[in-house]
Amino acid sequence: MKYNNRPVTIILPLVIALSLLAGVFIGSRMPGGTENQPLLLKPRADKFTRILEIVESRYVDTVDRNALIEEAIPLMLHNLDPHSVYIPARELTAMNEPLQGNFDGIGVSFNMLTDTVFIINTIPGGPSDKVGVMAGDKIIYINDSLVAGTGIPDESIIGMLKGPRGTEVTIKILRKGVDDLIDFTIERDKIPIYSVDVSYMIDETTGFIQISRFSMTTYEEFTEAITKLKKLGMNKLILDLRGNVGGVMEPAVRIADDFLDEGKLIVYTEGRNSPREEWRSTARGRFLTGELVVLVDEWSASASEIVAGAIQDNDRGTLIGRRTFGKGLVQEPVMFNDGSAMRLTIARYYTPTGRSIQKPYDNGYEEYYQDLNERFHRGEHRAADSIRFADSLRFVTAGGKVVYGGGGIMPDMFIPADTTGMSIYFMKVRNAGLIYRFALQYTDSNRETLNSFGEIKKLKQYLDNQDLLNSFIAYASENGVPADMAGIKISEDIINIQIKAYIARNILDNDGFYPIWQELDKTLNVAIDHISNQ
């Protein structure tokens, strides 16, 4: 992800990046209204079935037919394209959670601080919040199993806390200032997985919304965010799709619709067995005239590229950042009777000018995913002129803008990766997780004071007056990274800002984190300057 050392959270399953990069999904109902019934696998006597029969009857040792099939299917799909995937039954629920926008659990975010489950925050109104679990609590036992100081992996903790809605889990927590462990019995419930990470006003007229993925709840979250910001005076918007690897197609189409006049083409899909289908904007647009900037980078993929392509091709706003991933394939879910599933590529999607932004995958899976590394080695992260597009892939928008297909979406304004403030000292403390751990420890030691600030402006003013940097230098030295004054001088600003941002997140969640982290975000600051001058 974009930010290092973020807390482990059972709100955000670990499989998100891999599952969403599997593609743009057409779910149980197509955005255009067509019912999309699950496909069923029908047995047939073919070579594959015959081979299985021969192996079962004649192989030297006993074989497990089902295990052979489970191994063979992924290899077969692997040779089609990089985004057609098979999902075993045991993995399907976890893969679908980010797309559905919820899961069943107790509603806490946690970090394994010094081998102890340290609760960062609880979901307001969630199961843990209702029974009195608090940020700063440390979970010692889960269902009578000791989990503190045992080296138990994060995934195992998540598995113990998650479970079907209505079932119960018992935890024993250690709370600062309380001598004995406190027992809580928590009834699991539906927990939202938010895809709109944050929405806030950058200044009196400019709003900021960041979307991390596209799930079935994304459009409702986006609508709530844009309504809130317009009430606060927003007439300019920066939409951040950096790091957004995609997901469900429908909310992406609906969000693009909110920016476009009625009748504009948003996207169309077409495949060998899938006739062309178009999605056009309606009359319901919520933000049709205000200045719009969309931020993208090399991890903006699939559904996020649909939004970016629709905005760019309709000359509606300005794209700022770096070339997107280049994922223009559409997957259809196929369900099997044993609870497993396949997501099969059935079509390509095309932006309004008619360009496919899918990058080539003719040379195999490994080379396909090595493309981002190759971009880095070619210098694409540093200079726009290192990027080459074939003239045959040249398209022109109605407003006369030249755009290209065949390998992601090139933004209108290229911003190189920012290496300001990097030093060996910074890399050591960052890679050791010391910045985040220091912020967590500082928060725990000063929680009562920090909680007294109900808004980011007051909290930031307080943190600006604390000597956080020197306290951190001493902390890092105690934890194996001695002071390096030359490196500290280079990196002091970035370290100080990151510490304050992480502390603010521990108190105010993302509403505290992003307004402080904004100081380090070169791309966002260019976008702010650009939109302010329009």
Spell out the blueprint of helices and strands.
Layout: H1 16-20, E1 24-25, H2 47-58, H3 65-78, E2 85-87, H4 89-100, E3 102-105, E4 108-113, E5 116-122, H5 127-131, E6 138-142, E7 145-146, H6 154-161, E8 168-174, E9 182-187, E10 189-192, E11 196-201, E12 206-211, H7 218-231, E13 236-240, H8 249-257, E14 265-271, E15 274-280, E16 291-296, H9 303-313, E17 318-321, E18 329-335, E19 341-350, H10 365-369, H11 371-377, E20 394-396, E21 402-404, E22 413-414, H12 424-431, H13 434-445, H14 447-451, H15 456-464, H16 468-478, H17 485-508, H18 510-517, H19 522-532
Parallel strand pairs: 1-18, 12-13, 13-16, 16-17, 17-22
Antiparallel strand pairs: 2-19, 3-10, 4-5, 5-6, 6-7, 6-8, 8-9, 11-12, 14-15, 14-19, 18-19, 20-21
Helix pairs in contact: 8-9, 13-17, 17-18
